[in-house]
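2024-03-11 09:14:02 DEBUG pipeline.ingest accepted 1 chain
2024-03-11 09:14:02 DEBUG pipeline.ingest length=500
2024-03-11 09:14:03 DEBUG pipeline.predict start
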Amino acid sequence: MSLFQIILLLSSLLLVFILYYIILPYKIIRSYRSKGFNTYFFPIFGEFKIWFDTFSSRGDSFAKTKESRQKFPDQKVGITNLGNKTLILIRDPQYAKDFFINPQNYKKVDVSNFGLYLVGGGGLVQYEDETWKRYRKIISNSFHYESLRSNISTIQSTAQEFFDKLTPEDYKNYTVIPKIQEITGEVIARIFFGEHLAKYTMDGKPLTTYAAEMVTELILAAFNPLSIIFGDVMLKYPILPMYRRLKSKIDRFRSLCFQIVRDRKASNCKGKDLLASLLETQESTDTEKRLTDADIVNEFITFFIAGMDSTGHLISMVLYNLTQHSEYYKILRKERENLYNTEKQVTLDTLQKMDEINGFLKETLRFHAPAVHTFYRVALKDHMLGGDFPVKKGQWVKPEFMAMFHDENNYVKSEVFNPNRWKEGNKKVDPYAFTPFSAGPRNCIGQHLAMAESKIILSEFLERFDYKMKNEKYELKMIQRFLYEPFEEMVFELKPKIKE
């Protein structure tokens, strides 16, 4: 091939790229703008660029999103792009309801699959249709009310164990998110997999720490323009060093998870946990009900990451918010003394009576929910959203949780942190205006466990320690990575309470 032919080929590819990824999506976005919609376009990055720019200028990836319903009160959607696709951002609870209760209108998109390479492209979070229903039925047994009730003691004893073994150095520099993640990761391991994770490490790090770092690296790689254009192909067939290193980490992590499953099978310990339920399917005479070791590892990773990461962040943000709203500290302490501390072994019934901490948790979720959106979904057919907004086949759709969480139509003085708004007798919030655990048939299967676990860990922490920010000038900046999380590490200084 001559130099001229090479130049001609490259020029043609460049023109196709410009047409496909810039001109055509821009024309679509501009057509919405001409109709009065709030729109934003940036080649390739689209919504990701909004996050980056807003964080750079405001110190919060979702500052503009939170203000969107105030600035554009009559607009139920926002319009942007990601790659060459039009992305419809749902900002209205009734539109969100329509989206959630009609999952048959959509399927997950390839850019979401990139982030799911860690779970082998499978697992409950990724499956669709009948396969999803089959897995959900198997797994739901471990989330029934009685199952949750029976595991309260495990959560409490795990929290007590971790807090009681803190060292004087931990008191001086308590890195709250990774420390709480160690507890939430261990809770998930003991409840669902019957394992004590302390005996498993990666590169000399606790499995919880390694997993959290790996997930963050994975999501940052997903923001790369090559990932947006080519999806999970970049990890399946890694050519560039960045992707090769990441794939190697993921493969090693998955290998260890296979080892955990093999160790459990070799132990012949049946048990009543999730891992036992999953392994039991391998004895079924119905081939449709059998799960392979790979299936089981995918679920292991899904629940370990979800249970460790999001719940750990929620608890950490509650502790941070208490440093900013100290007037609630006495209120929570009084409730703890009147309810939690009256039982040596706390019960689920007691936890459900703790209205003050429940309100504080919900308000923290409204302000700092770890998961502020669903996976991107592509429309499988033309349909009407909410009965009056046309969605075309091939367009991407996603609810904007933070827009709805800060909508004055649903929350009076939405910019004010007010746990009392959740008390009985106050204005009822539209259930689709508060969806920190998603909604509809595919809502978070572990949401009740997460709330119970949070109440226990917070109660045990507050029982043992007074605390403050180590850096009194710490400025909270929230960035969207894998989760919506603090940009800079939060470090507490703990002071053990003297028991009377």
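2024-03-11 09:14:41 DEBUG pipeline.report The first strand starts at residue 77 and ends at 82.
2024-03-11 09:14:41 DEBUG pipeline.predict end
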